[in-house]
Every structure is written in C-alpha cells, then in structure tokens.
Design a protein that fits this description.
Blueprint (H helix, E strand, L loop, with lengths): L16 H15 L11 H8 L3 H13 L3 E4 L3 E4 L12 E2 L2 E2 L5 E2 L12 H14 L2 H4 L8 H15 L8 E4 L2 H14 L4 E6 L3 H9 L3 E8 L2 E2 L1 H7 L3 E4 L13 H14 L2 E5 L24 E6 L11 E4 L2 H12 L7 H12 L2 H27 L4 E3 L6 E5 L6 H10 L2 E2 L1 E2 L13 E5 L5 H16 L10
Helix pairs in contact: 1-3, 2-3, 4-12, 6-12, 7-11, 13-15, 14-15
C-alpha cells in the first residue's frame, strides 16, 4: 500500500530539508490534519515523492519520534502517535453539559447497535452496488431514486396506512433534513410560525427556530394535541407525533385526529406528521396507524430509518400532498443535490426482500420483553412513579409525584452511573410542569434495565440534607 501526505520542500532555502519535512509534519499533527494512528509513507517512498535523500526523511522521522509525535510500529511502518491529539474538542452537549461516560444509558430514542442486521444489510448493499446503473452512481433525483420511492409507497401503505404515490414521495437524509426542507417551504408560503406540541423535543424546537420559523407551544392532553388552542393561536402549520407522542407516549385519539384535520381544512393549514417510531407498536392489539390517511391533502407525512434500523444510515422520507411536491423540490434544489444513491438502492432492496419486516418482528419481540422488565423494575424499585402511555417505541414516560425534585434525582442518578433525562426539559415552561423521567430502555439488556431502575430507586429514596424528595 502506498500512502501519501502533502509536503513541499524548498531546495535553495536557508532551512535544511530534514527540518522542513519535520516542521511541516509537526504543523499538520498539531492542527489535526494528521490524526492519531495515521499511517505515513515509508522513508523510501517519501524520499522518492520529494526527490530527496532517504537519510533526510529518516532524520525528520526520528526527530518527531523523539518528540513523541510519531511512532514506529513493527510491520506497520511509521504513524502518528496514538496520544498525539492536540486539537481542542467541543463536547457533545446534553442540555447544558457534556454527556459523561456511564454504565447505564437510559437516554431515549436510540436502538441498541447490537441488534443492527449487519449480514442482511450488507447483502442488500452488495446487491445494490452490483446492480447499480446511473441512478446509483450519478447525482440522484431530488425526490429520490425511483426504486426506493416505489418500495416506500408500498411498505408505508400496508404497514402505516399511508396514502401516496411515488411521484409525491421524497427521500431525505433523516427527519431533521426533512424538517429543514419543510421550514423552507413554509416560509415560501408566507408562514413564519409553526405550532408544536407541549411537551415536545426541546432540540427540535431549537432547530425550527434556527431555520427561521417561530414555534408556538400548544398543550397536549390525554387525547393528544388540544385543537381549540390551535385555532386560537392563528397559526397555519403544526408539527405532531400522533401515533406515539414524544415524550409522553400517548396516542392521538381518532376523534382528535378528525378535529385536527378539520382545523387544517378550515384554516388552509398544514399538518406535519412525525412518525418517528412507526412500526414499533409493541402491544398485541390497538395498533395506531398514521394520521395521514385521515387527511392526505393537508398532511405532510415524515418517517425515518433512525429508530427502525440505525440513525447512522441518515435515511428518511416524506409523503407529500401533491400540491406541495413542486414547491418542496424548488426549496431542495437550493440546498442539496439529493441523498446517497447507493444507500437508497440498498434500502429499496432491504424493503423489497422483506428484510425490514423480519427485522422489526424480531425487534418488537425483544423490545416487548425489555419493556416488561422495565415495568416490573419500576413497580419494585420506584413505586412512586406512574408509567404513561401504551407499550410502544423506544421509551416510556414515568410521571413522578408532584413536588418531587426532578433535577436533583437526575443528578443523583448520574452519581450512580445512570444517565437519564428529566421530563420538564421538554416543556415550554419547565417550572410549571409535573416532574417525570423519560426512560429509554432499548439500549440495555433486561438485566441492565432492571439494575438502572434499581439505582434510580435508590437515588429517589435517599434524602439529602434530611429533606425528602417530595415535599
């Protein structure tokens, strides 16, 4: 294998050639251009590339090895030292602090990477590569490759009840990408405010605002989003999670769905349906289909593979009212040139082969067992909490007694190596909301879920400073 780095030397300058090579390599390591464990060319190869003596390169390599920036590994040549990472890194932010390393991660929304169907996905991707023509290797259509749009319409119709056509289906790079496009389309329509559920995902609200659209919080009741405040707000667009409300988990009732669609038709408004974990209904009966078929002319349906397979795939989709398809294409052409064609062809094969159906069948069985373990653990170790909503998705909301110190409980659980998110952060006015915990239970095994809840129960039972958790 021939490795290459970007170096230049000045032969008639005052600085010796070896020092020039060492200085440039040192600069690239310090800037992070050469990352830890990066292989460097052999001294013979680099000497040939720069047309200098091999001894000059050996001298530079030895100097940097002595400084601890490079290391020589038998059988692997010279590489940047594993510890030579001088870049300043920004932490990944969780609310207002970095995500700490913990033993038990109960953050919601992430499937267990162990469950990813590696063999089946690899087979689909290989078939996609082998059969790829121009659609897979060239710039893909803005709406997405034909094969995937056709498969999505078929799959969403039989599994989620969605009504649509390939011509009005758009493939995106996940839901955030889709939401950004929707915000752009709303602005084109003269709509600068978007109603959101209260509670809802805090980062989603921030994302919408950063895309130039103001958010208006509308309360969620036992039947889903309250429609009367929606009328009163005067907004002309609303974002909802009707099948499994995030974070409370309550499904929108059939009556409330009809009222919401009636609002859209009365006001000329638009409904954006985020079906973020559609297909992961875990109860044997009472499965809720998508809202979209209740009003396909007013609902923008959006889904994603992030919860079904893995967020790293960056695959999402929208089924659009025909009236909006052209507008959405015009908005998109100013932003990007479409999504990875080979990834789309692989996912089309995954759908066509029934592999996604088989994978989700296994996941529902696995998650059902984990949810059962969570329920039993809460009953045993955290009996003051009340679990809300049906058995569905990748999380459950645990309501705490009024007056419980949610923030202190979350902090004390972290001290016991359990990372869990409180429920108040998802509310528009956190200080007025009932305390609770949003428990993601799919990233751990059943024994891990039980131990995590036991530790949260231990944190809840502790009385710091002689004061009880609930006043």
């Amino acid at each position: 294998m021939t490795w290459h780095v970007m170096l230049e030397v000045v032969r008639d300058g005052p600085v010796p050639l070896g020092a020039q090579i060492a200085d440039q390599l040192r600069h690239q390591v310090e800037r992070g251009l050469l990352t830890p464990r990066t292989r460097l060319p052999s001294s013979r190869q680099l000497a040939e590339d720069l047309r200098v003596s091999r001894s000059v390169v050996v001298e530079a390599y030895e100097k940097l090895t002595g400084e601890g920036l490079l290391e020589s590994v038998r059988g692997s040549g010279t590489r940047v030292a594993a510890h030579a990472d001088t870049r300043i890194r920004k932490p990944v932010v969780l609310v207002d602090r970095a995500i700490p390393p913990v033993r038990f991660n109960l953050l919601p929304g992430t499937p267990n990477p162990v469950t990813f169907p590696h063999r089946e996905w690899t087979a689909s991707y290989q078939r996609a590569v082998e059969s790829a023509r121009w659609q897979g290797l060239g710039y893909p259509p803005l709406l997405g490759v034909d094969q995937l749009r056709s498969e999505l319409v078929s799959y969403l119709g039989r599994v989620r009840g969605v009504l649509g056509s390939p011509e009005d289906t758009m493939v995106t790079g996940g839901f955030a990408h889709a939401l950004g496009l929707v915000c752009g389309a709303l602005r084109e329509l003269g709509i600068d405010r978007l109603a959101v559920e209260d509670p809802s995902h805090d980062r989603q609200r921030q994302f919408i605002e950063e895309n130039g659209v103001r958010t208006v919080a509308v309360p969620v009741g036992p039947d889903g989003l309250e429609v009367e405040p929606l009328y009163a707000s005067g907004v002309r667009a609303v974002l909802v999670t009707p099948s499994h409300q995030f974070p409370l988990g309550v499904p929108m009732s059939p009556r409330r769905r009809e009222e919401l669609v009636r609002w859209a038709r009365d006001t000329g408004g638009w409904i954006i349906e985020d079906d973020y974990d559609g297909g992961l209904w875990l109860e044997q009966r009472g499965r809720h289909l998508a809202l979209q078929p209740t009003g396909p002319d007013r609902v923008i349906y959006a889904g994603t593979a992030s919860k079904l397979l893995a967020p790293g795939l960056r695959l999402g989709w929208m089924v659009l009212p025909p009236e909006l398809t052209g507008l959405m294409e015009r908005v998109r052409v100013r932003r990007d040139l479409g999504c990875d064609g080979l990834m789309q062809l692989a996912f089309a094969d995954f759908l066509r082969s029934g592999l996604l159906d088989g994978h989700l069948r296994k996941m529902r069985s696995r998650y059902r067992a984990q949810h059962g373990a969570l329920t039993r653990a809460v009953e045993r170790f955290l009996p003051a909490a009340t679990l809300i909503g049906p058995v569905a998705g990748l999380h459950v909301f645990a309501a705490l007694p009024e007056g419980a110190d949610e923030e202190a409980l979350v902090a004390r659980a972290l001290g016991l190596s359990v990372l869990v998110k409180g429920g108040r952060v998802f509310h528009d006015r956190p200080h007025t909301a009932r305390p609770g915990l949003v428990l993601g239970y799919t990233a751990l095994g059943r024994s891990g879920v039980e131990e995590a809840i036991r530790r949260i129960g231990q944190a809840y039972d502790q009385q710091p400073g002689g004061a009880s958790w609930a006043s």
